[in-house]
């Protein structure tokens, strides 16, 4: 009997948990088609960034208005053809095209910093045909007066606002810096989020010693980043009634299996696909199926969460006990 | 234009609307002030708007007006309906074809925004010099006087040309009419269809060239038949008046607006009449009505059909009672017995038996000089005299030949029911745009008539705009500036410190001031005279801190909608809520299609405005001690004090004829007296961090940040300085100093600075800081710095980037855009060769920032030497500079000849030294200077005719560096033929192409330099072809030095190229990448963008030096690195590309891929060429190797 890989993720019926995560791969329709051919159960788009849209809108408007002071330029140094629009049009068009190009669900992604903009763009994304929306929050503060509570409230309010304005499933892609993640997850769920993606990555600044410049490297994720995801999946999956996705550090079949065992409904991969190409997804899917068959699992649902804090043989490993045990074991 | 029957538009749009709908083809070329007509046509066709026959007209930009006229001629000969738009020199370039088109009896309408012809100076403003210069071509000439008339008579012109089978030049006053926004009633497509005769079109088509019915036209004729054929067309001209009048009558039946060819307005029994064409006719007619109401008997006859001039109809239109006539011409024909219209009137009266009427002619309104009711009164008063002054002028004070009439500038005929408002704004604050919307709002909401006219100063950065708005229940016929206003809006706080913002306020007027001070403090910050005026005039004073509102609502410095909301809130023209609704609607219309964020921010700003608007009680007493500083400092030269300062203060109109140099020669070096202080932030030097690279000075577009190395003995007390580090001048002091009142705050110097503060690397050796906080100190430092002696050139061992910036710039503080990408090259040229420079400058941005009054940036060194600069035209600049070289050669040859002739008297040794050093730049300058001085003294003692001939040309022995400057519109398009010809010669000229890849000055129209995929005016959807490789074409000659440079990418190569080009004894061409505001990004990033252009292969750097051929080396050296960035990265930063991408991503992807391939192929080609050795020396080397 074939092993059943199908799963429900944020209300979407998926043929299995494995999909490309948010990445520039979706910029090319050819690559999107390759990903589907490689077996992707869904396509996750890269984020629409509010700052990018607004910045360009303001910049291009300013550029066009510059010539108003010149009698010769007669209003502007640039033409003003009616055929172009500023705003998120390119992104929305890409959703439409991907929807036409593939049969699997398309999950759009949004990254903003003003509630109005979140709501405005979320509506447009829904209208463009996205099947679900990943809300990508990225809030790290250096301000003394901004408390963790306030940041959490802001995130919950944001989900509430987007939920009120849209009907497609929402999932929240989180940073890994919330000590009270289970509580936050529950509040997000109540606010209308159907899922959580653990975790977003924070590309760390790189210091150029010679030039005294800061720059952002764009390193691919490493295998070492997975355990943090597994820990939190394992800790919250028993208690949170949400779809969970692992994102970051999944390279191999074993990684994928561990993510599911810790409670992931979906497993997103980017770095591995960028490094090894879209067909690596097939390797993972086939490998998971083979391993599960070999180990006589019936379904992903049977396996999902089997190694979380509730079901694993020794749950203490997730607790302070595990921490102490690890330190003590050095000797 | 909207489908409703009214629209608030300017005449350019009103005309283009007709021309576009009644043409199959429009062939265009940009020239101010007619460019918007072509731009509208291009935009409408790009949007798929159709003509009345259901076709989208083809719009084609040509390389010049001459090219446009040629194409028009071709379209006509092949039987299609075509139009064009032009002005000024553009019309002159069309004249040869105009003779042909008229001679061949072809129906065609051209629309001319009549503009001054360049004589002693260029002027972009309006008069009839251009159309009068074409009056002999055989075209029908039809004049319109207002935006409404332009719209209507454009239709009449297109209808009449077909009926008459003769071409029509429809013209109206440039700027005054072309750019005046007014509420007009529009003609529908059905109206136009009713105007146009399909039979006439069929007749025209039947005459078109067609191989199925072959004909031949344009033959060469001989004495036997040419003359008769010219006379054979007479019947057609005889029919024209009736045909044009019939078209006008047809129009009247369609829309109710009736026009006459010669239309009289005034007393039926008038004794004094003014004859006039153009917008001035409206002023004259309304003033006449005012005078008649007061019991006078005067009138005005408006000439609409100027060619053919119907003496009979003209005279019939005159009242029989007329005793004296003043004919006003808006042109000057020096040496003629009178101006053209005057002569026509004289002839007409004489030939119709009315020769007994006294006729005088006068000139008015040249270069858009104001023509006001007071001037009309003066003209009528002149006519009332027993011996009226003939050949008079009005509007100026001629104290030389005493032609001028005196007039009362305060004479006012405006009705009380006309609301008049004046707004002073800054170009960047959006005042003009908001006012255009205000006119539309008021006209639409109230059914009033409106009028808007906008006056700009000549600067491209920090320019002031003055908006004149009128509203009223009757059609507004006042084509002159407001002199008494009910509302004054001052949108920039610092204006009150610069000029009398209440000069035009009438008693009881509202004064709205944008001020950073709270309402209870603003009074104390006003100058004393403004306070007093407010008290005297009982001004109602309102204030708002618009900048804070703008910043709080994310609008930056854009205060236009905030001030517009204030205007509506105070003026009460509309109920406040209704006004805000309309403002928001206008915002939505303006920005909505482009994105919601700008709309949202504007809405927020509007909503926040009323709460921040305050009425201020004007006290009874002026308490301020603030006085406005003098326009120029006391130490400014006499000419600057007497003349330049008057123009700077806006009093240029008051200068008498005697004050002005008749040949257009002005002193250079005057920008230094115009302290504009437009930067909010200026660069402040941190000497402890500076590495003394001088890059900040190199990139400064305004020569506002400079480096000096000087002896410790010369170090002024208190001026920051450090020890100079380089070994060649060790022991000296070094200072970097900003000119705080001349800096535009563009940030390029900070961006280029490579030195960082170790403890705080975000700070560099140059940091932008608040100008006002540093002003006092930096002003004092600048004064000290500028007086430090300039280091002698001979002491600078290496003229590289660092060394070149120790040389004095002889081009400073121009009015170019903040962050301009052209001016650093121009400045460098003056640093390297300034004291021996002769510059031929093509018309364009560089001629405007280089030579637009009142102040000009080319200056002199302490010896009084510096660039000699001249602008001829747009199209002829290469030839113009070439001529300068020929003159220099001729003078030197003559000088050398005379020196030899006089050698026995002057002494062989002196003469030999002079001859050996003549023209040389290799270290003999001082020796040459000394010997010339010596010879000069000797010559003055001689009575020899040869000595007298030699004296005026003796200094031609000094080296001269001839540079030919211009933009890509000139070099790639209109002037290309001449440029190519000059390159093909061997004369020593240096050509600098400041390549912005568009016609920047006229507003960003596409040139052949515009890159593939970029949107530009006339190429809205993105240019489909690659830019011309001008450098490669020049290299093909083999003997031309060619360099491609981009100072932001590799400044060392730029300096090298300039030095090599100048040292090459033959033609040199430098093509200089010039980032430009027309590319659509913040120019503070211009240097980075230049680097990307080079790294992506879009702009390869190279030098092709023919001297290397003789050495057997490859002439071409590729100076840019292998391609290491994508063209898409370069494109992504610029609006001109992003716009195309946004319009059609798939199509842009193709264009971008094509651009990537093209860049790679070009770089590859250059790589291959850089391996080629040619010439005899190369062959020898090859033989040796073998």
Biggest protein-protein interface?
Answer: A-B, 42 and 65 residues
CATH superfamily of the largest domain in chain B: Thiamin diphosphate (ThDP)-binding fold, Pyr/PP domains
How many domain units of chain B?
5
Name the beta content range of chain B.
15-25%
Number of domains of chain A: 1
What does the average pLDDT of chain A come to? 92
The biggest beta sheet of chain B reads: 9 strands, mixed
CATH class of chain A: Alpha Beta
CATH fold name of chain A: TIM Barrel
Mind telling me the CATH superfamily name of chain A? Answer: Aldolase class I
* Strands of chain A, count: 12
Shape of chain B: globular
Determine the N-to-C terminus distance of chain B.
75 Å
What's the architecture of chain A, going by CATH?
A: Alpha-Beta Barrel
CATH class of the largest domain in chain B: Alpha Beta
Query: Which whole number gives the mean pLDDT of chain B?
Result: 95
Descriptors:
heterodimer, A: about 325 residues, alpha/beta, TIM Barrel, 8-stranded parallel sheet, two-stranded antiparallel ribbon, 12 helices, B: about 1200 residues, Rossmann fold, Pyruvate-ferredoxin Oxidoreductase, domain 3, 9-stranded mixed sheet, 8-stranded mixed sheet, about 40% helix
